[in-house]
Amino acid sequence: MRKISKTEPNSRSGRARPGPAAVSDTLPPAATDSPGPERNCRLCPRLAAFRDTNRLREPSWFNAPVPPFGDRLGSLLVVGLAPGLQGANRTGRPFTGDYAGDLLYGTLLEFGFAAGRYDARPDDGLRLVDCRIGNAVHCVPPQNKPLPAEINTCRQFLAATRADMPRLRAVVMLGRIAHDSTIKVFGLRAVEAPFGHGREHQAGDVRLFDSYHCSRYNTNTGVLTADMFRSVFASVRRHLAADQTAGAASFG
Ligand code: SF4
User: How many structural domains are present in the chain?
Assistant: First the structure.
């Protein structure tokens, strides 16, 4: 059942996938035009050191802060936790190349937020439609676990992504860390926007949707099913349709 927070009135896994060994020549276009951190950002010393190690170990991998992917003029932003080591950190495109991407991109395709074919590689031609994907933390953390200080430090780039989307109307937050960081970007307090799968929160003219993270761990343990994940995006679709209708009526 859909839950809406009381603020409304005011309102991973790292499974490697088949693909090219070298991706440095197929970086996503967003890497050059996003408001994200520079490739050698060292604001988080632990993550920068981990990146240095990965560059030595896997020199053909992306191994840099992963920029947002998709339409900056879109209505929907999906916020994940952080790049997976052998997923986005390898390929340079969010959620591309690991299990979480299979479920996320499959669902985005089903609900019309993506077009083309997802083939787990940044040159598969997949296009996001009225949608963008970013992360709370832009660099891969060891064991997929960023420290609180790293989440806080990287929030400035999530805020920049949000500020770079003038038509934003909906945000899907994948997991508690993405939720906690995103609500801070929107100026909400945890007590007025508690996390829970299927919960919705209103921040000005943007609706925030909570979902459990689409990681292999969560799906393998039954915490998140494909149907539970679909229901979040069905709610997003309904909200955007209603929002568009209301916007058209106000001009009528
Ligand atoms: S996580 Fe963000 S702030 Fe930290 S080093 Fe990477 S890009 Fe910079």
Answer: 1
Ligand 1 binding site (Cβ under 6 Å of any ligand atom): 37, 41-44, 47-48, 65, 137-139, 150, 153-154, 157
Contact present, 233 and 108 (Cβ < 8 Å) = yes
Q: Is residue 8 part of a domain?
A: no
* Residue closest to 28 by CA, chosen among 96, 80, 78, 84: 96
> How confident is the model at residue 35, as a pLDDT?
66
Specify the CATH number for the domain of residue 234: 3.40.470.10
Distance 13 CA to ligand 1 centre (A): 20
Q: Whole-structure pTM over 0.85, yes or no?
A: yes
Phi-psi region of 217 (alpha: psi -120 to 50; beta: other; left: phi over 0): alpha
- Minimum CA distance residue for ligand 1 atom 2: 154
- Ligand 1 centroid, distance to 89 Cα (angstroms): 13
Distance 102 CA to ligand 1 centre (A): 25
pLDDT in tens, 16-46: 333 333 333 333 344 345 568 999 999 999 9
